[in-house]
Design goal:
42% of the residues lie in helices and 22% in strands. It has 189 residues and is of the alpha/beta class.
Length: 189
């Protein structure tokens, strides 16, 4: 079995806390570990209404004319972010690895209005490195780093670089607010 990064349970714990679900562990040293997640069978109509209201009125999310550069080595996450930003009207530049993102930074003639990068890229590079590369090439482009790992150290590190941090799973309305605020502060908006 391969060596992981030790992030799985942190991501699971964060997600379960957001959802209000319970995680249980049974383990016997050198024999087994069993995790159990208690998930309700369904949601009440009241919860569904809250979810529907939070994504209603899509015309509020009009970002036509803006270009976003997104990078994530997890293809389903990249596809989901692509679909969301595309639905808001963004033109998109996408990369599925740190290397391909660096190639785009070096070769692309399109300067993005905002960048959204996953924190962990290819297990050895970070979204912070990528944002720094983008900054060195094109100046201070607004950047949001996404992370499944909740960490005060990471928050400080990203803030010190001048970027924003959002934890996964990302709330669409919160992402939109961050994007809108960053673009409003940037002189190209």
């Amino acid at each position: 079995m391969g060596v992981g990064l030790g992030l799985g349970l942190s991501i699971v714990e964060h997600t379960l806390n957001l959802l209000g679900h319970k995680l249980d562990l049974k383990s016997e040293q050198n024999k087994y570990s069993m995790f159990t997640i208690e998930v309700p069978y369904g949601y009440s109509q009241g919860n569904l209404t809250v979810i529907q209201n939070s994504i209603e009125d899509r015309e509020l999310y009009d970002m036509a004319g803006h270009t976003a550069f997104i990078a994530d080595d997890n293809i389903p996450s990249l596809d989901a972010l692509h679909a969301l930003l595309e639905s808001w009207g963004f033109d998109l530049i996408t990369a599925d690895s740190y290397g391909s993102a660096c190639d785009i930074i070096n070769d692309n003639k399109i300067i993005p209005d905002i960048a959204i990068f996953d924190y962990l890229l290819d297990h050895e590079h970070t979204g912070i490195e990528l944002a720094d590369n983008l900054k060195s090439m094109y100046g201070n482009i607004p950047c949001i780093v996404l992370s499944g790992v909740v960490s005060r150290h990471l928050e400080v590190q990203i803030t010190n670089h001048g970027y924003d941090l959002l934890y996964k799973p990302v709330c669409a309305a919160e992402l939109y607010r961050k994007i809108k605020n960053r673009l409003a502060l940037w002189d190209r908006y």
